[in-house]
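#onboarding

Welcome to the new folks! Below is a worked example of what a typical request in this channel looks like: someone posts a single protein sequence, and someone else replies with the predicted structure as tokens. Don't worry about understanding the tokens yet, we'll cover that in week two.

Example request:
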Amino acid sequence: TYPQRQFILIGDNGQKDPQIYHQIQREFPAQVKGILIHNVQDQKTETFADQLLFDQASEAAEFAHKQGWISAKDVQSVKNAQ
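Example response:
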């Protein structure tokens, strides 16, 4: 629907988000800037090399900042909210 837009996909490993998001990225590589997967299970589950598996929101925020997606101020706001 929006071929000029780019997206950051955020999900969790409770069901099939890693697999679904991987497929979306394969179909639309120019549109998917990144994939962040929240680890909601007690154990690490399969993710793909192009995905960040994170336990805390601050980890995802720091990664997003390193990618230039959010500001340092935004990272601090996430940390303050935890």
